[in-house]
Amino acid sequence: MINSAPATQGLVVIGRNEGERLRVCLQSALSTGCTVVYVDSGSTDGSSAMAQDMGAALVPLDMTVPFTAARARNAGWQELVRRLPGAEYVQFIDGDCELVDGWLAAAQAFLDEHRGYAVVAGRLRERHPERSVFNRLCDIEWNTPVGDAKACGGIAMMRLAPLQAVGGFREDLIAGEEPELCVRLRAAGWKVRRLGAEMALHDAAMLHWRQWWRRSVRGGYAFAQGACLHGQAPERHWVAETRRALLWGAGVPLAALAGAAVLGPWGLALLLVYPLQVLRLARKLRDVPRAFFLVAGKWAEAWGALQFYMGQLRGRRRGLIEYK
């Protein structure tokens, strides 16, 4: 048993076709001795049977209803409350992650001592950052500052009472549901904390450019949708991120095309701002590949944001943008 946890705490694992990664995830979760709920989203690789055989409580989602990770997490914590009525805390973890020894005890100790916090997260590391530049970028992205935070990711421990009070996750969000939840929790007077303790290992398995591109498109979509929901003052949720994406990913190319229409080929000189920005960031970060992908990612993010706005105009809901 890697953690010793009381019955006030349970875990929710969500996944679809994670295979061996799910086995590793469930082993780390079940070894804590806590109640573990696994929410399966239409797996075809035997994940549901494996989870039940290992001892997890299974919640198969109705896949005739549009799927989102938010919907899966809500189904998970609601089942946990049904099975463990006295639970105070829920640890969310994705099926491609492995819980680190000691995290649950550290997270609960913090929440027990600091009653004003609704969410606590720790250090999430990429399992194989050496396998691709995209995995390495994920590992850097996971390494957020220690201290009070505005939001958490999908791997975090939460108090069930405030989670229930604000209505859980917004199930119509295809991405960014955790930061959106944190906006509502903070508006209700709760705080979010990032600890320095190791929390989990994540396996992005992002080895190809196309995967990175689709993940970045999803990020841009989430920025625009988040800004639409909570962009007003004082929160200004993801307003700056959306503006940067649209400026660098759409504004600069359009301005260059307009310049070319007036000045001929000289108008395209505006595009030199991209390599200059890469050089500026590379000098600041001391990391040329990261600088390149930060700049190139703005094109994908802009496309994602534009997809959100086009969907709003047409009254259509966007389906999932998956990269695995």
Compact summary:
With 324 residues, the protein is of the alpha/beta class. The protein has two domains: 199 residues, Alpha-Beta Complex (Spore Coat Polysaccharide Biosynthesis Protein SpsA, Chain A); 88 residues, no CATH class. Helices cover 49% and strands 17% of the residues.
Protein described:
With 324 residues, the chain is an alpha/beta fold. The chain has two domains: 9-207, Spore Coat Polysaccharide Biosynthesis Protein SpsA, Chain A (Alpha-Beta Complex), CATH 3.90.550.10; 227-314, no CATH class. It contains eleven helices and nine strands. The chain has helices spanning 20-30, 47-54, 69-83, 103-113, 133-142, 160-165, 177-187, 209-230, 239-263, 273-285, 288-314, and strands spanning 9-15, 35-40, 57-60, 89-94, 97-99, 117-126, 147-149, 156-159, 191-202. Strands 1, 2, 3, 4, 5, 6, 7, 8 and 9 form a nine-stranded mixed sheet that branches. Strand 1 (9-15), helix 1 (20-30) and strand 2 (35-40) form a beta-alpha-beta unit. Helix 1 (20-30) runs parallel beside helix 2 (47-54) and helix 8 (209-230) packs across helix 9 (239-263). It is globular, with a radius of gyration of 21 Å. The two termini are 31 Å apart.
CATH topology of the largest domain: Spore Coat Polysaccharide Biosynthesis Protein SpsA, Chain A
How are helices and strands ordered from N to C?
A: EHEHEHEEHEHEEHHEHHHH
Q: Give the second-level CATH assignment, the architecture of the largest domain.
A: Alpha-Beta Complex
Structural class by helix and strand composition: alpha/beta
Q: Compute the average pLDDT.
A: 94
Query: Terminal Cα separation, in Å?
Result: 31 Å
> How much helicity do the residues have?
40-55%
Unreliable residue runs: 1-6
What is the percentage of strand-forming residues? 15-25%
